[in-house]
Amino acid sequence: MGASAAFHLARRGEQVFLLEKGHVASGATGHSGAIVRQHYESRLGVRLAKASLAFFQRFEHETGASCDFRTTGFLSGTRRRDLRAFDGLFQLLKSEGVRVERLSPGEAQSEEPQMEASDYATVIHDPDAGYADPIATAAGFASAATRAGAVVLEGVPVRGMVVRKNRVLGVRLGGGKVVSTGRVLLAAGNWTPGLAKAAGARLPIRFVKGQVVVLRRPTGFGAAPKIHFDFYGNTYSRPEGDKDVLVGYMDTDPRKTVRQHQLAEESVATATAHDLRKRLAKRFPIMARAQPRGGWAGVYDVTPDSYPIVDRAGPKGLFVAAGFSGHGFKLSPEIGRLLAEYVATDRRPEALQELRASRFEEGVPIAPEAPFPAKRGPRLP
Known about the structure:
Layout: H1 2-11, E1 17-19, E2 35-36, H2 43-57, H3 59-63, E3 70-71, E4 74-78, H4 83-95, E5 101-103, H5 105-111, E6 122-126, E7 130-131, H6 134-147, E8 151-153, E9 158-164, E10 167-173, E11 178-180, E12 184-186, H7 192-198, E13 206-216, E14 227-230, E15 235-240, E16 244-248, E17 257-258, H8 270-283, E18 291-302, E19 309-312, E20 318-322, H9 328-345
């Protein structure tokens, strides 16, 4: 998110310093599943995702770099008991201009021959969805920002803000150096809550563990699959390159938190790899013969409604973009653009109004207009 905001700010003619503790995309971005889809249950989510998808499709034209965006299409089905909720979601997507269509189970299997769809009453298909390379995307934003005049500093840990009389005056770096500035955007992923707290802003963010596994598609699978969300088998999946499939859990319960913003061990247990393969094989039976090729674990920064906080916070001049709950990558082009407008003008764009930090104290968290399935517990959207 920081690289996107830096790019959009630099393109507006602002003087920008992008500070990276490690290197660009060395944090959660580099481990992102990088799915770019419009399948959201809130109107806000659909709008942000739709605008971001359009940017990914023209990424090279905008930045001069490739993000390796691959259009795959997206499929997700409903069982008969959830048809009413499915209809509501379908109509929401259509009303926002998303190019979705309804498929019968037979039609869905024609689109995805290896998929078992007999339990589905109908299937939603978004032909425009896809995925990108998260590292190439972040690097592309950063390089384009540099060409527009930004300064990108890697290997520079931020120790805190310089604040006097409730106003930001700069950023304190390791070694005691200070970058003087009256405007700071904290978009440091899981490090943001701690840095914001030290500056006097408390953010209602918890940390939740997520896990993904890469499986080699068996011989005979055929063409690369589409992105698939299986709400009943609790898996999401997408192709990974020319031979593999990336799979993770759909439901990551935001109530099951971890204490730290980093994991001591980022590998995935063999039992987890086998469980995800078993779940995926119920929807794609041929994947029962898939060979695990690795995987990783990471931490989501999660807000009470699983939508980000994009707002001013604490002392004057401090802005935060945090709590993306696993959706920061796919929304980064549009939220980065809106953030740049907010920071440059000090006027909040209307599109960011719902993402204000005060919504939780006000009792108006973001709620889905079209929840699917209707009867589900707390989870990431």
